[in-house]
Each structure stands twice: as structure tokens, then as C-alpha cells.
Amino acid sequence: xxxxxxxxSTPKATWSxxxxxxxxxxxxxxANEAGGCGKIQPDMTMNFTGSSVTQLVGNAATGNWNTVTxxxxxxxSDGSGESxxxxxxxxxxxxxxxxxxxxxxxxxxxxxxxxxxxxxxGVLTVGTLSPTLSAVFxxxxxxxxxxxxFEWIEVPSGGIGSVTDSYPGRKSPPPARTGITPNSRATSxxxxxxxxxxxxxxxxxxxxxxxxxxxxxxxxxQFAADTTVPPAPTVTPDGVAGPGQSMSFTFTTSTADVTTFxxxxxxxxxxxxxxxxxxxxxxxxxxxxPGFGQNTLWVRGIDATGNLGNVGSATFTAPRPAxxxxxxxxxxxxxxxxxxxLADQQPELAGDTDLDTAxxxxxxxxxxxxxxxxxxxxDASRAFTSAPVIDPTTSFAVAAWVKLGEAGDALPTRNRxxxxxxxxxxxxxxxxxxxxxxxxxxxxxxxxxASSAETGSVVSDAPVVTGVWTHLAGVYDxxxxxxxxxxxxxLAGTTSAAGLQAWPDRQRIVIGGELxxxxxxxxxxxxxxxxxxxxxxxxxxxxTGQLASDPMSGGFNEPGILxxxxxxxWNFERATPCYLMDLRDTCEAAADTTEEWGRWLALTRGSAIxxxxxxxxxxxxxxxxxxxxxxxxxxxxxxxxxxxxxxxxDDDGLEFTQWQDEPxxxxxxxxxxxxxxxxxxxDANQTxxxxxxxxxxxxxxxxxxxxxxxxxxxxxxxxxxxxxxGLRSSSPAEAGVWTHLVGVYDAERKQIRLYVxxxxxxxxDLSFTPMASSGPLMVGRTLWNDEITDQWDGGIDDVAxxxxxxxxxxVSQLHDSQVAPG
Length: 822
Prior knowledge:
Blueprint: E1 2-4, E2 20-23, H1 51-62, E3 70-71, E4 110-114, E5 117-118, E6 123-126, E7 133-137, E8 146-154, E9 177-180, E10 184-187, E11 198-207, E12 221-225, E13 234-237, E14 246-253, E15 258-264, E16 271-274, E17 281-288, E18 294-303, E19 308-317, E20 326-328, E21 331-332, H2 338-342, H3 347-350, E22 356-358, E23 361-364, E24 372-377, E25 382-384, E26 396-404, E27 416-422, E28 427-434, E29 439-445, E30 454-463, E31 470-477, E32 482-487, E33 490-496, E34 509-511, E35 514-516, E36 519-521, E37 525-534, H4 541-544, E38 565-570, E39 575-576, E40 588-589, E41 600-603, E42 608-611, E43 616-620, E44 638-646, E45 657-661, E46 671-679, E47 686-692, E48 697-704, E49 709-715, E50 724-728, E51 739-746, E52 751-756, E53 759-765, E54 777-779, E55 782-784, E56 787-789, E57 794-803, H5 808-818
Parallel strand pairs: 6-12
Antiparallel strand pairs: 1-2, 1-3, 4-5, 4-7, 7-10, 8-9, 8-11, 11-12, 13-14, 14-17, 15-16, 15-18, 18-19, 20-37, 21-24, 22-25, 23-24, 24-37, 25-34, 26-31, 26-37, 27-28, 27-34, 28-29, 29-30, 31-32, 32-33, 35-36, 38-57, 39-40, 40-41, 41-44, 42-43, 43-57, 44-45, 44-54, 46-51, 46-57, 47-48, 47-54, ...
């Protein structure tokens, strides 16, 4: 049995391409049903085992391979005997099984607590000389049973930074905890400490026999005793709220001279509330949940003489974030007409609030190639609902993609508002551009009267650049009575929003202007897309997403609110090989879910369709169907194109497709390339997907033979002399293994990222904007210095491209959705 290359066709593989990569195991057997060995021999089960097989499967698991391909031969392990007739074997592939007893090493424990209080970055003070130690012990094998061990020390005078695995000496550990359910908390028996010393502990887990794999240590949690100050209060949540939603907590202490509680989402806490009551003191507060997944609120009491008490905490896992209550795409593209672009995509949440328009035009190719985006003229253009969507006196948020003017335009001398909500006289909030300071701005009005004043005005740090797409989000937090502004997913500022009154006459959401003293003012000039309105606060995770693998997550891949649009995908289920260039109904691959765009992949001569990662796949090399006995060299790749017609029949009655090459991506804006690929050779540079310009490709996913790794590369200018920036995978590429590759250009963060099999391998800040590329998407080649080069040799499947930047969690989600179950 050998590790083999990926199967490129079924039921008969192309044997010239199906090399045997490495020997795995040998087994002997005989089964002669014809009686040629003197007796009838029944079918025999062949078991291939051994350390090489274990290592092979372990490498596949560690590398997150999607498949493992094995080849079998009847020859001896030294290669002899294959032509000997009595060594002939017939295998039954439908009965083949890979039996794996797989064990995952436990992860590093997290969420450490001393005396039941969550640890932070500093030294935690506890109000007892007999604290318990606890942690959550993670393990991907949910059915496992773990043993948790705690190690603790007295921190030396050199501080925690001087601690090593052997220094200082360890104190007598509490008994190990056994039978721990993976991903649950385990608590030690109490340890004894003294005042005046600082201690630290850490933990690690070991899974059950026969594996007995021990995971890494957690970080250190430092703690010390102080029994002279108020003890840690009890912190009791009233239910659990989602990210950005309000949640109530009650603090209680039996220490009668506590006058104040300090609380907050970080330690030490800074917000204050008075403690009331006689004997038992208490206070109840409403706070806004600040993040996805696990959150911790810290609380301490302060007594009448000003002594800061020990800190208590409450940790909980927030449910999944609530979606927007209204959303309007404001973009037309194949499959989405004007009615759909103006329709509320969330009609079941806040009522069916489709948009009407006045003097709104539609600009071509602004954000999407072959798309149209809502265009506002800086005068009378508006889009609006017929009813209010939010109550401006409760927490809410609004987000939108905006482009102010055109590149090179001077900044406007008047305010320009992208989104607002009307009252009878004034808009309750406005999100847009603030003239005078030349920056992005979120502001509110105190009430809906003639004497209303601005409040909660928060501006961006950086000035506005005209003609550049920017993501804005304005937030009002009713619990904190504050407004916040996010620009391209980064918090630009937070300020107090005082004096807000009720808005009994709430009216429509307006896109493209605001209402002030009964007049429509601040008209938007430029384009607006993807407006979202929330009945909650937006939090940082809404923009970055959160991975399910994050120990602090709720166990889900949360991609965030910045959703790219898929503008092309080809899974090769409706693809035909290319024997005669451009012959009608051959040499082509139809799009999968994006077929409305009319974008095909036109395939060059020699391109083959065989077995892909799942279903059919594209197979390329530099030879014209060698398995059929041909020896002709070829240049094989696919390119994005639309069908413009067919030629008249020639003398043989053949018709040929006429193609018009077409780009798919705006490569000078955020974009994502995704593909599954398998290499047949490792000794040459090979590009799996790119998008070309006149002289260079703007971005490409490639294999670099010099370093033996995957790369994602972007180009500065479409010129023969230009700058490049590239990322490389953290591990070598493997031949014969289907691998998921994703390259992301994130214009808003000025960053590029490379993912392999759903995991981030490399990222880098970018000093330039990649070139705009007017040429087609290329599959299996790239354009470099006017030369179409880097021929792919192997299989390609599930090509997908997105206008916009996928987050870490969105890439992981995409990968997981394409991996075959089991």
C-alpha cells in the first residue's frame, strides 16, 4: 500500500498521472476462487497497519487534509513480482475502509479563577487564605475524560517574568481532578497561602488511557491575599443577553460599611454605583454586553474609609448576535433587480420596510463589475422607508458602505448625511460627513422641537478622502448614554450623549440626507450601499467576526456583519474538456450559483475534466491528453468570459463559440479568491488562480517551488516595472493532496491575508493599493511581465471569488461548508 496522488478520473484513473508517492505498508494474502491453488480460497480481508500508516494518517490530520488517497499494487514491497501472473489481485473498492482511532491532545486551559474570581493581567487579590484554583479544560474530543493538574508557586522577587519551568520550586500541588468533561470547569481543593506574598498557578490537562496525551500549560494567574479590605461581592446576572444588548446585574455584600461598588468589563473596574440598604448592601446596574462568546464583569466594594475591596466576577457566554432588524442592499446585479435592491432583506424583524426613492440614479461598475449602485446627486436624491425602524431613545446602530464624491474632488463645504431617521421636525440621529472638520461624524439631536440641540457628536480621527469606499457605523448605547463611531471596522471614538428626550413622532429612515427644523438638508453626493439597522449596540466582534476555535467563543464561527458578495464560482459539474479549441458546447465551464452573471470559464486546448475534490474538477498540465497517446505540448488554463455568439458552420459543419473576456473582480477594492487545488509536481512555480491586467496580474494564489510553499501575491501597478507584496504558508505544500487556499485583500484595513485549509497562515499590512485589472480571471496561469506563465499541473475545483474581504471566521465557515461530512 502506498500514499498516492489524487485520483483525477473515475472509474479509470489516468495511470500516467497516478504516481505512487511513498510506501506505507505491506500485507500478504491469497484468495483463488477458481481453485488454481488446489482448493477454493474465499475472499480475504487485507489489513494494512504499522507505524508508517499511523504516521501517514497523523500527518493528514495535522495538515487538515480533506482526503487521503492510497494506491495498491500486487508486487512485493521491494518492487519485484508485479508482472508475475500468480501475484494478480482484485480489490473491492466499495468495501475499503480506513479505520482510525484518533485522539486530540487537550488544549491549554483557559478562564482561570482563584477563589472563584476570574484572573486578569495583573495580580488578583482574594479575601481568603484558603483559595481554590480552577480552569476550563478544553479538548476537541467531546467524549473524552480528562485529568486536570494544577501547579502553583510563590512568585519570586524577580516577578512573574523570571519564572521558568523549573524555577522557583513548585509548592505541593492539590490533588489532580479526574473525570473532567472536556470544555468544562474543574476546581481544585483549597490551598493555603499567607498574607504579604504573591502566588501564581497554572493548569494543564491529560486525556484518558491508552492515549494519555498531555496538553500545554495555561498561562499563569497571579493572586495574593488581603483579608483586611471588603471581601469580593456576590455578582448575580438577571438572565443572559446577547452581544450589544443590555443586561442587568445585582451586586451584594454583607459588609455593612461598603458605600460604593465599582464595576466594569475589565479589571480593575472603574464605573461606580452607590451601595444601598442596611446590613446587606446591594446595587443593580444595566450594562451592555461588549463582545461575542465569553464575557466577564468584575466588581469590587469600597468602604466608608475608601478601602478598595477584593474583586468579584461573573463570567457568562453570550448567545449568538442578533442580526439587523432592517437591511437594504442598494445594489443591482444579475439576479438582483431594482426592486430587490430596494427591498428590506429582514422584513420579519421590524416590519416590511422596503425603500421608496426620489431622484436616485444607479451608477455602473462602482463597487461590482457588471453591477449598479445607488447614486445620490447631492441635491434632491433620497431613499426612504414609509415607517420608523428604531426607537432613538433605546440602543441602536446603523451601518453603511459610503463613497463621497469622486477621487480628487474637493471636500464638500456642507454636511453630507448618509443615513438618518426623521422626526416631525428633526432627525433623531445622523451618520455622515461633517463639513468644517472634514471628517466622518455620528451625531444626535436631543429632541424633536424647535429648540433641539446636537448631542453625542463623535468624529473620526482621520480626514475623509473623496472617491474611496468607506464603511461607517454609528452606535447609540442607552445603558451608557453614549454614542460611538466605527470607520472601516475600527472604533474612531466614543462620547457622551446627554439630554436625550422621548421621540413620540418617530418617522421614516432616510438614506441620503437629514431633517433639521422641518427642512431636508445635508444631501449626500456619491454612492451608498448595504445599509443595516440594528436594535442593539454594535461591538468590535461585529466587524472582525470570531472563530469557533477561539477558547472564548460560543462554539460558532461568527463571520461578522461585513458580508462580501460572491461574484463568481465554478465547481466544474457543468464543464467539458477541450479537444478542439472553442468548439461549440465544449472547452467551457459554467458557473455554479452565480450563473445569472453569464460568466463562464473558457478553457484552452488540452484542458481536461476529471474527478475533483467533490464531484468533477478541472485538470491541467502542459501536454495534450497524454493518456490517449498524444505527445503535443499545450498551454492549458481557463479564463472568465461571456458568450458573444457562435461562428457559422465551417466546411465540416462545426460551429465555434465566440468569447468576450471579462474581469470578475475590482482588484483595487477589497476582494477574496478561494480555490481547492492539488499539485502533481513540486519542481516548478504554478499559479492556480489570478486576475490579469495588461502587463501583470493584480493578485494570484500560487505555489512557489523555491520555498516549497503556497503564496498569495498582489501587484502595485500594471506596468513592466512594479512592486509586489506576497504572503507564504507557514507549512510546506503537499503534492497529491486537495488543499483549500484563500487570498484576501482587505482595502479597509490595508492588509492582505493567506489562509490554508480554513486557517490563517500569514498576513501583512500593505503600503499600496493593488492595481485595477481590466483582464479576465485566470484559472491555472498568471500574467507576469507580459507573459502568461506558471502553468498549473494538477487538479482545481470549487473556484469562488468575492467582492469584499472575508473575515477569519468567514473563511473557516467557507472551508467547513465545502469539506465532505466525515
